[in-house]
Specification:
two-stranded antiparallel ribbon, 52% helix, globular
């Protein structure tokens, strides 16, 4: 598979011991689906479908449950673990992809609110999330970004090449609280590249 962002694709016939290597259009690497354009929408499709199947299993076997802790344990183990795995790589930045992922948690809260008789307005899952103490998935993804970059700086993540890509800001103004320099990017794709996104989230975090 060849990764590219331009329309002009350089296609080369790679051979190993005289045998042509088959070219594929997608590949799973450590549980994440990669495509040539490095667009993670196909991975989000795959991931949300898998999460909804797990959520269907919970619905079929827990309709008589009356404990919020039981629902949360099942959701965290079988569903949320799926839609958060590797998020520092594929974290979405388009509204469409963000909403597709949020639909999974909203569906869980709708089902749990019904089973536990938690009153809430239609399509407003705020009361349910308060009872279950669930925070939004986007906030959790931002927290994962900040945790990763902090562990990278502290040496808990052994990735010197990634560490060398961080752009620390040398303050010339004491009122400027940003720790990282964010370069100017001309496209949303480059603006939301993993390390750029992590540095941006760290700059915006009140306690970082």
């Amino acid at each position: 598979m060849t990764y590219y962002r331009s329309k002009a694709v350089i296609s080369f016939d790679y051979r190993l011991d005289g045998i042509s290597i088959q070219r594929v259009s997608q590949v799973h690497d450590l549980g994440i689906l990669f495509v040539p354009s490095l667009n993670f929408s196909p991975h989000i499709d795959y991931m949300t479908s898998k999460a909804f199947r797990a959520l269907g299993f919970i619905r079929r076997h827990s309709t008589n449950f009356s404990s919020a802790n039981c629902f949360l344990a099942l959701y965290n183990a079988l569903v949320r673990s799926v839609i958060e795995y590797g998020s520092i790589v594929w974290s979405p930045y388009t509204t469409v992809d963000i909403c597709r992922i949020d639909r999974v948690q909203n569906s869980f809260m709708r089902f749990t609110g019904y089973c536990l008789n938690i009153p809430h307005p239609p399509h407003d899952y705020g009361p349910v999330s308060q009872v279950l103490r669930l925070i939004s998935l986007s906030v959790r993804r931002d927290n994962f970004d900040i945790t990763f970059i902090q562990r990278l700086i502290e040496g808990q993540v052994d990735a010197p090449r990634l560490l060398g890509e961080l752009s620390f800001r040398i303050p010339s103004n004491t009122r400027l609280q940003c720790n990282f320099y964010i370069p100017t990017n001309k496209s949303n794709f480059s603006r939301n590249a993993p390390l750029i996104r992590m540095m941006h989230n760290a700059n915006n975090h009140i306690d970082y």
